[in-house]
Amino acid sequence: MSAVKTIYAGVRQLGLDAEEDRRDLYERVTGKRRLRDMRPREKDAVVEELRRLGFRRVSRRRKLDGPYAPKLQALWIAAWNLGLTKSRDDGALLAFVRRQTGIDHTRFLRDPKDAARAIEGLKAWLARDGGVDWSEAKDIPAWARPPGAKVALAQFARLNGGNREQFPAFWRAVQDVLGPRSNPGHLGRTDWQKVMNALGERVRAESDPA
């Protein structure tokens, strides 16, 4: 795959395919906002940055399907970004689903009770071993309620000796990924996905320093 094709695949996977987002990334890495203005080594530098943020090339296999597949995949990627699993592959997720439900594939996962066993099993694992706080207490600020924010807070705590009470430091980590103008009250799902991918790179590096 050429560097340009790899870059386009990477920005799609990381949720950076909005024009302004990807051009900001290009400029941060190379000082240039357009791929056509870059030298080959600069394009390679963009590829390396995308990999640092969590981009992984995947085979052209059929995506998991079924009504519960997106939720299960999101939780599995969260587990990978928390360093709980060494593989983000669909095969590893399917093996987990099989253990929880006895069902071989997400396309056959139709009963809500079966799906709940798999989903709640993943959430319990993320809470127990990953430190994700899924509670919805009234005193939790609005910005910290989305699932992505909860996972990012757990990642931050994992990188800081279990301390999740350093909001200024946490927000600096978020702004390192999203930019200095980021506002906690205006972050969407794709914003938190970018943060989780970037923090996930650090979590995995610390859990497997080699």
Could you characterize what this model shows?
The protein is mostly helical. The chain has three domains: 3-52, no CATH class; 69-128, no CATH class; 142-207, no CATH class. Helix content is 59%, strand content 0%. It has helices at 3-13, 19-30, 40-52, 69-81, 90-101, 112-130, 147-159, 167-178, 189-207. The mean pLDDT is 87.
Helix-strand sequence: HHHHHHHHH
Oligomer: single chain
Q: How far is the N terminus from the C terminus?
A: 27 Å
Strand content: under 5%
Fraction in helix: 55-70%
Averaged pLDDT: 87
Short summary:
The protein has 210 residues and is mainly α. It is built from nine helices and no strands.
Give the secondary structure arrangement, pairings included.
Elements (H helix, E strand, L loop, with lengths): L2 H11 L5 H12 L9 H13 L16 H13 L8 H12 L10 H19 L16 H13 L7 H12 L10 H19 L3
Helix pairs in contact: 1-3, 2-3, 4-6, 5-6, 7-9, 8-9
Can you give keywords for this protein?
globular, 9 helices
